[in-house]
Amino acid sequence: MIEIGNLALYLALATALYAVFACVFGAQTRRRDFVASGEHAAYACWGLVGIATIVMLHALITNDFRIKYVAGYSSTTLPLRYTVTALWGGMEGSLLFWVLILTSFLALAQFQNRSRNRELMPYVTATSATVAAFFLSLLVFVTPPFALLSRPPLEGTDLNPLLQNYWMQIHPPSLYLGYVSWTIPFGFAIGALATGRLDDLWIRTSRRWCLAAWFFLSLGNLFGARWAYEVLGWGGYWAWDPVENAAFMPWLTGTAYLHSVMIQERKDMLKVWNMTLIILTFSLTIFGTFLTRSGVISSVHSFTQSGLGPFFLWFLAFIISVSAALVVWRMKELRPRHKLDSILSRESAFLFNNLLLLGIAFATFWGTIFPVLSEWVRGVKITVGPPFFNQVNAPLGIALLLLMGIGPIIAWRRASARHLVESFLWPSLFGITVGLVAFVLGMRTLQALLVTSFSGFVLYTVASEFHAGARARRAMVGESYGAALLGLMQKNQRRYGGYIIHVGVVFMFLGVTMSSVYRVEEIHTVERGQEFAVGPYTLRYDDAESTEDAHMARLAATLTVFEDGKQIDVLHPEKRFYKRPEQPATEVDLRSTMRDDLYVILGSIDEKRTATIQAYVNPLVWWLWCGGVVLVIGTGVAVFPTRRARVLERARETAAERRQQA
Amino acid sequence: MNRSYKFLIGIGVIVATVGFLVWTAVDQTKMYMITVAEFLSAGDSYAGETIRIAGRVAPGTMQWDVSKRDLRFTLKDIAHDGSVDVYYNGLLPDMFAEDRDVVVEGPYTDQKPFKATTVLTACPSKYQAEE
User: Fold this and answer.
1) Alpha carbon A541 to its chain's center
2) What whole-number distance in Å separates Cα of residue B70 and Cα of residue B85?
3) What is the reported pLDDT for A300?
């Protein structure tokens, strides 16, 4: 079996390299047979990587401890669902999993476009196969996943206990899906540059891929935050750790891209900008992989030096120089045909939204690499912690929130004074009122007041967009209000899906802001029966009990929660001691409501069962996760393949095809 | 005024704001990462700054007072001679133990012991199994 896995990887590398060659050669010489052969090679590569993955899964499930990777990340007592998780729990496995997703996506993209976009497709295949070949050569030459141990142990080391968790099962896959799917739009961009088809064809064709990539990246980040919240046990969900930043940066540039392409589609402007954004986003996904695996920047996760760093840096340099050269080569054709008309226009709102997103990405990048930079330049290692990121990104984020309300309702091209008053009077009044009410109710922090007020403003604009659209449709078509609302969304999925996503983002803004500004923290050392208060709650420590099984020993405290003198819940925070590897871990317990989360950590317990308890009240955290759900719904509305959407797309394609021929 | 000037001013304002925010935030939140030996030989050069000292918990020096949540230990340099006494009040981190590598964070002071506001322990890596 192991030999099959190794062989499959070698052959996969060969087919990927062949696919690159055949597709580029075929496209350059207009030899269709070569292009077809290159695409077949890419399908074959997918199959071979699939075989290697099956071999790895088989080894993990059958506990084949001859393989170093299996011995390092699994054990006979590990439950089956985590045995599968171990596929991406370690370095080699995660790289293999990465290539599997990449080649699957490429196969899917090829199949979707088997009779469309024949000009661009060879380059999509070539680009993605280049990336696949890079990862495969790492697997073949640097970190072979099927490396054997000279003396296989009887029992494996087990998966890191922190990873034995539901959120950790879905967090890495969705993050990888998000990272990897950016390869396909990047491939289309390279194709557009190489062929000179620089109209919005590549953008429209890769739109779904971009949305999917953005969607998975959003989910990946949210799942990661949820994992940190529930498992790491420090009371928060985002620590501005390099590894988190690595996933946040492409999300920011990707968000900027999703907005700025609308300007290109409508106005034929910002072509260079869009190219730059997609190249940047893709580069950041590779940079993120580099960060998490090189150990260059010490993170809370403290990755061991793996020697992979230089390879990633060289590959990154290669990607950036090739794409930059292509952009410079096509610079003349990328020049805009129109100019921005007025600073008070939707175009300019989009432009500033882009700048803010990039500003946040830049600040995050700067803070992440600062230790390396300062050591380089000044010879001293200086690091910046979470306060840096909060201090810089909070004001930029708040400005972005405001633009989120302005963008959708300000007029294209040029907004007249009358239009401004008409569209902004009521939303602004509403936002200000919400802010004032919050102030009267006791909110005194500027940041919280601004976010509350701007959120009111954005929500009002979104609601009125829906309402106005539905009312107009009802008057015209004569449907009921509900049917009009549905028809509206169906008719313009992208626009209304986008609005729904905005609502989700507003929820997240509220959750993040309030939970960081108004969090309450208490630490108490209590004997059995003692009580203490935290925020609106009173906690009574009742008792602790210990249990033990083959996997771990656990110590659980029982805490009764009271509010206004009434018992409302019982919480059981735990301290766990895993046996293999020997490692203590904290298992928090929490009570989550729309108003706030009560988050309880068991610090330690002594012989007399005196316990140290740390408790947090985090207001509105629920809304962060709820915003995530709304975001999922919004993306669904935006990309759901209705019949109408297909017909429209087909019509647009034929029109573009005709223009091209004329 | 020409409209492209307006755009340039708008773009300039955002770029300048980002630059200003980054600059001031770095200044206000920076922490010097040093070893125990560097800390001992530093004199007053870190006065007024926040520092992170990396070292190892010296065996036999850890005192943990559960009721007050007071942690006292001696942090010794990993490679060289020299050590510094550390005091910390808070929850005992999961991975904290004698002979482990830890990082203590706090404002620089020449008073003894060094009062740490945070104690960071190195988690076992996510991507590499222990050898």
Assistant:
1) 39
2) 13
3) 46
Mutate to test the interface with A, among B34, B94, B102, B117 (most CBs of A within 10 A): B94
Provide the CB-side half-sphere exposure for A636 (13 A, CA).
7
Q: Give the containing element (helix H, strand E) for A127.
A: helix A121-137
What are residue A613's DSSP bridge partners? A524, A602
Residues of chain A below pLDDT 50: 300-304
Residues shown for chain B: 131
Mean of per-residue pLDDT scores for chain B: 85
Chain B: residue whose CA lies nearest to A526: B67
Residues of B (54-93) whose Cβ lies below 8 Å from A: 66-69, 90-92
| Closest Cβ opposite residue B123 in set A301, A341, A603 | A301
Q: Which bin fits A379, alpha (ψ -120 to 50), beta or left (φ > 0)?
A: left
Structure tokens given for A303: 């990755």
Q: Which of A215, A287, A281 is nearest to A254 (CA)?
A: A281
Distance CA B37, CA A660 (A): 70
Smallest CA–CA distance, residue B31 to chain A, in Å, is 5
The shortest C-alpha distance from B3 to chain A (Å) reads 7
pLDDT of residue B131: 30
Residue A237: the pLDDT is: 93
Quickly tell me which residue has 């995530």 as its tokens.
A628
Instruction: With beta carbons under 8 A apart, name residues in chain A contacting B34.
Output: 381
Whether B21 sits inside 8 A of A585 (CB atoms) is no
Rounded to 5°, the CA angle A504-A390-A244 comes to 70
CB-nearest to B21 from A72, A395, A523 is: A395
Rg of chain B over all Cα atoms, to the nearest angstrom: 21
Query: Strand pairing of B30-35 and B50-57?
Result: parallel
Chain A residues with CB under 8 Å of B6 CB are 343
Show the beta-strand stretches assigned E in A224-356. none
Q: Does B10 touch chain A (CB under 8 A)?
A: yes
Whether A391 sits inside 8 A of B11 (CB atoms) is: no
Please compute the mean of the pLDDT values over residues B65-71 and round it to a whole number.
86
Of B11, B34, B124, Cβ closest to residue A355: B11
ipTM of the complex: 0.88
What is the rounded distance in angstroms from the CA atom of residue A11 to the CA atom of residue A107? 17
Cis peptide before A250 (omega within 30 of 0): no
For residue B129, is pLDDT > 50?
no
Q: Which of A94, A441, A533, A127 is nearest to A315 (CA)?
A: A127
Separation in Å, CA A616 to CA A116, A129, A392, A591? 56, 49, 25, 11
Q: What confidence score (pLDDT) does residue B125 get?
A: 40
| pLDDT given at position A418 | 87
Q: Which residues, in sequence order, are bridge partners of residue A23?
A: none
Owner of token pair 């907004």 = A415
Q: Which of A383, A581, A606 sits opposite B31 (nearest CB)?
A: A383
Closest alpha carbon to A194 in A439, A380, A24? A24
Spatial distance between the Cα atoms of A299 and A240, rounded to a whole number of angstroms: 10
- Does the structure show a pLDDT above 60 at B64? yes
Closest CA to A109 of A182, A49, A26, A34: A182
CB A367 within 8 A of CB A390: no
* 3-class DSSP state of A569: strand
| Separation between Cα atoms, residue B110 and residue B105, nearest integer Å | 14
Strand partners, A349: none
Asked if A103 and A46 touch (Cβ cutoff 8 Å), the reply is yes
User: Residue A109 and residue A275: Cα distance in Å, rounded?
Assistant: 20
